[in-house]
Amino acid sequence: MDSTPPPSSASPYDMVSGALGEYIPHGDDEEPGTGTPRGENTPRQRDRPRRGGGRPEQILGAVNLDRDLRITDFNLEAPVFEGIEPVPGLPFVDLLPPGDVPTVTRRLRQVLDTGEPHVARVQRLRRRDGSELVVSMSILAAAPPQEGLTVSLIAMARRLHLYAAETAIGTSLDIGETAQSLAESLLAWGDVAAIDLDFAVWTGEVVAGRPQGRVRLRRAALVPDRAWPDGYVTPGDDLPGDASRLLSHAIRRDDPAQAVVLPDRAAIERVLGSPRLARTLIPGDQAACVVCVPLVLDGEPPVVLGVAEVWRRADRPFEDSELFDLRELVARTAHHVDLARQHQREHTQVLALQRRLLPRSAGDTIETASVYQPATPDSAGVGGDWVNSFPLPDGRTAMVVGDVVGHGLGAAATMGQLSMEARALLSAGLAPGEVLEHLDETVSLLDDAESGLAAGYSALGSTCCIAVYDPVSHRVELASAGHLPPVLVPPDGTAGPVAVRPHPGLGAEFALREPFDVYTFAAPPGSMLALYTDGLVEDPAMSIDEGIGRLSDAVSVVDPWDRLDQAARRVVASLAPPHRRDDVTLLLARMIGYRKEDTATWRMPARGDAPARARALVTGLLERWGTREDTRDSVLLVVGELVANAVRFARGPLTVRLIRTGHGQLLCEVGDTGNGRPRLARKDLLADSGRGLHVVHGLTTRWGVRWTDDGKVVWASVGR
């Protein structure tokens, strides 16, 4: 009967150690732990393969730890672990070089707390003679009901180490993480490893050819992780300019790149020529030697990205085989650094475009604040989310939020094009639904494009939501193309999503296209509107309706006196998932509007006496407002010409509205039911038609047209 416990009840240590018991080769003196001479034919000895007997030498070991990270059991009987002396009851970190203790302790605690394994860390172990063994270390949590950890150790042959190091270095596109992984791998050959990159590499810029003058280097990575003395160059610091004296041999040489070795501290100080430089570059007061290996991209000419430095004690000089291994590892991984540089460049460009689209100011009638957080670095780059709010020329405020499919430059280019197109069309007076119709057509056209930044990229299915706030009527017009509904918080605090009918995203098939509905709802002063992208409310653990409900709850508790930018950050912090793969975007808008005493609206039939009647009504209002006489004359001329133009070319009734804005301007509006667009023609002294618009154009700072469901509104702004 098989007495082996089922896997569910066996700890990782039991499984690893049990397997080792049958395959670990021993010497010829005695059976470890039994005192039995090797000469006796014990069953275990007869079945065990000997070295050279056809099986490779065993390189696997295991150490069991309790919750205090102390050794409880171990199996390191393979000859390769000779000199590694674990002692039950003592901390596991006693087996490590002192500089590695803080980092490894954090990793052990992390696995103990989360249960998630930490796999294939390149690590050094100390032998009793002071030498070190490089291993691949994996940390596993014990199987319940047992507690503690199992640390499996694989002694790494040179090729295995190089392969594992290259694999680990190539797992990230973040330039800092890539440099850190390379430094951790290089630590197998020394006591301290550092990566110093050309400043252009660090910022993602293009690096061409070999540097001709002094190189500006920035420290990108440094291991081990410990407290360094004041003045020593740590990650993020620029190396002193004179440091190129130490690194110039490795960076600027005409022959193929090779490792440069300075064998002792005296040689290093002689090259540096300055005690100050010695303090910034030599990691400690002990005698030291250093090898500098350039990171070079093959090509004509080769491109130098930076330099890797490995430091060790002077009593352990670098052997030729070690220098060969160091050069090989750095050469293998230089392209990973360049890939991270290219990703950094793209990430920076897209993020700059994204930030450029964030709202700057929304005017005096509305307060806005936005938060944009890009996806985590392990995604394909910054996504296509955008949010914008801007005052329209006619005094209203537009708010736009969109989510373009995908990540990277293709998504960024499309996002920038759609955002700018939406702003231009809204500023030209088009209604939100009409703007979405144009964006829908643009996305369809971009999908057929074969050149430019968006080549090979499809934005079909992108979403967009447009809201326009009128500060006089205190109403919002809203249209959505496949976007999640905004959340409205009226002054009484009862928050909830705006009821909008679902609509396909932009660029849908022709058969699926429908007119974009425009929803109008009241937003009295003190109301707040939240526009967002799905990255804020999507969570695999809940439905999208629950996510929107959480957002509604978070926004409803924002105090009217809270600073809106701080409130937006709090909302995002409370809702955004910690490990997200999509951008998070939020726009909060607090409605203020105009005071009743700053606006006036009149309705009148489109008759011949309408201009005179409008001028009389406006005259009385301007006198109550205390407007200057010259401004009053200009406003009366503008109102008279706009009303006369509406009577002559449009149908009634007419609506005349005057607004006293907070920017020293008077906004005059005349609405009618006609669909003709007033145009400013070339001035003709003999022509009677068109003179009115030339008068308006000469007396105003801006004028334009916006379209409504039943006609148009011609507006003009006159300085007070």
Summarize the structure.
The chain is an alpha+beta fold.
Question: Would you write up a description of this structure?
Answer:
The protein has 720 residues and is an alpha+beta fold. The chain is built from 17 helices and 25 strands. The strands form five sheets. The chain has a five-stranded antiparallel beta sheet, sandwiched between helices. Strands 7-6-10-9-8 form a five-stranded antiparallel beta sheet, sandwiched between helices. Helix 11 packs antiparallel against helix 12 (432-447) and helix 15 (610-625) runs antiparallel to helix 16. The longest helix is centred in the middle third of the chain and has 37 residues, at 320-356. It starts with 11 loop residues before the first helix and ends with a strand. The model is unreliable at 1-9, 21-56, 377-381, 450-454 and 684-688 (pLDDT under 50).
